[in-house]
Amino acid sequence: MRQVERAVDRPAAPRREKAHVRHEAARVHRGLRGRSARLAARGARAAAGDAGGRISVQRITDHRRVLYRIGSERSRQAGYIEGRNLTIEYRWAEEQYDRLTALATDLAHRPVSVIVAIGTTPAAVAAKAATTTVPTVFVIGGDPIKLGLVASLNRPGGNLTGVSFLNRLIVAKQFEMLHEAAPTVEVSGFLVNPSNPFTDIEIGDAQAAARTLGRKLLVVQAATKNEIDAAFTTLVQQRVSSRLVAGDLFLNNHREQIIALAARHAVPVLYPWREATLAGGLMSYGADIQDAFRLGGVYAGKILSGEKPAELPVEQATKVELVINLKTTKALGLDVPLKLLAFADEVIE
Description:
- This protein is α/β, with parallel strands linked by helices.
- It has 2 domains: about 190 residues, Rossmann fold; about 150 residues, 3-Layer(aba) Sandwich (Rossmann fold).
- The protein is about 35% helix and about 20% strand.
- The protein is built from 13 helices and 15 strands.
- Strand 11, helix 10 and strand 12 form a beta-alpha-beta unit.
- It starts with a strand and ends with a strand.
- The relative contact order is 0.15.
- The N terminus is likely disordered.
C-alpha cells in the first residue's frame, strides 16, 4: 500500500507543459524551489528509507521550473521509484496567497499521509486551518508558537511539526549590515508584498530597527511586476539611497527584476536570499534556507515511516549566512568595511 505525502506551500496552479513536472496523484503539499526542492526530497528519502509515498508539490509560481524530481538514480538507491512506489503532484499558487486556503482544504479532504508546507508562513497557517488530523510538516521563517501552529517547540502536540528558520527574526541585523555597507545613508527603503498577510509584522520590525540606527524608513509595496517598477520609481523620487527587500516568496521570484532596477539606479540593496547575491545583487543576509528545506524533508520522511508529528520537536534552523558580491560593490563605488568582509560566509569576486 502506498503512503501518500502532500506538499502545501503555495496555492496550486494548472498543469504546465515543460515548466514543471506533470501533476501526479500526490499527497505532500510542498512549496519548493529548484535546488531547495531537491534537498527536501533528499532528506525525505533518507529518513523514510524504502517507504513508498505520494508527494504533491505546491508553489506560489511556476516560472522557476521547480524540479522536485525523485526519479534519479540516487532516489532509486534510497528505495523511491517514481511510478512504482512514489507519485508526485505539483501545484502552484500563481503568486496568489489568497488561494492557499482553498488548496489546503482540498488536499486535506483527500487520502494523504502528510502535508508539507514549505517556505511560506501563510501556507502553514492554511494547512493548520484545513485539518486537525492529517500530519503536517512546515518549514517557515516565523515563530510557530506565536503563529499558533504548535503548543511548544519540544512537544508540538496536534498534527503539526517542522522547521523554523530565522528570516523573519533578523530584520534588525539586516538593517545593521546595510548600514555598515552604506553608512552615510540617512533614509532607507523597505520593499514588501502587501498580499502577504504577515507583512505588517515585518514592517514593524523594520521600523524598530531603523529607529535604533537613527535612520528614516520609507516602506513601498509591490504585489505585481509593474508595482515593483513603480516602487523603485517612488524610492528614487524620494531620494532613498539604500533598500532592504522583505523575505517574501513573490519578491524572491522576481529578484532578477529587482537586481536590474538596483543596478540601473545605482543603489545598494540587501536581500534575504543568497541566490540574489549570486545573481548580481550587492549582498544578502538570511537563514540558510537550503538547510531548512533539507530538515523539512527529513521530518516528512520520519512521518512516512510512522513517527507522530506531536512527538517530533520543532527543529530550529539557526544557521544564517552573509554573502557579498564584490563586483557589485565596485560598480556602486562602495568601500565595504574589512570587518564586514571578514564576517561574510561567502565573498563573490
